[in-house]
Amino acid sequence: MISKNDGEFITQFIPHNNVVMSFEFVSVKFFYIVMVINLKKKQDRSENFVALEFWMSSYDDKSYEFLMQFRSFRFKLLKNVAAFTPHYALWLCTSCRDGNFSSFTENCLSNGRYCIPDVETTKLKSVTGREVVYEDLTQICLYFLDKNLWWDYIEDFYKNCLKNKDENLDFRSCSEKQYSTLGYQKEKVEMCINDSFIDKNASQTYDGENILLKQEQKTFMNEGIQLWPSLRINNETYRVKKKEA
Are 98 and 74 in contact (CB under 8 A)? Predict the structure, then answer.
């Protein structure tokens, strides 16, 4: 949670008219990370629009802890002055690439094309890296279908699925239960997932190239994201560092 003083410090800069106060640095301290945001001086409100890109993994506790803290004041921050987009950290299995992505691997989706950065982070024995990447894809589709409802899903998924202590938990079924309960139509979610595969035959086995995941991976690698959760503002990566205990 951020302190009351920190919250007031942020909200005082939210514009209430067409003239925006000039400022250069805003430091926002969270429980796990410190974001130092360098915003260029802008006078016209239309020029002061901020694009926030949050890089995360659907299996990373700190990503969810940040989102839970951020959502408490997101309406004020995002209203008319900023846009928030979640992104997912995805790596590539190089040995799978050398083999032309021809073999199944349980820790990646699409035969090694899309992998979570660190498979050792999986805490439940029943969950594989392949299932984590599938959840990444699911969350991308949920955000596309309903941006506001996505926030509710994130909280429910984290509390009821990711933090579930049952080692035999069916990860995908738990995810489907959360978004269906919130009102997402399962058919539309599955259509989004299946249509994102270039080869429609591969949409049943999840072993082909995927448009949505490919774009996430390409952006992740091109932008040189080294840590997550990580924040980019107006196409620039700002310092994100863990607080020392």
Answer: no
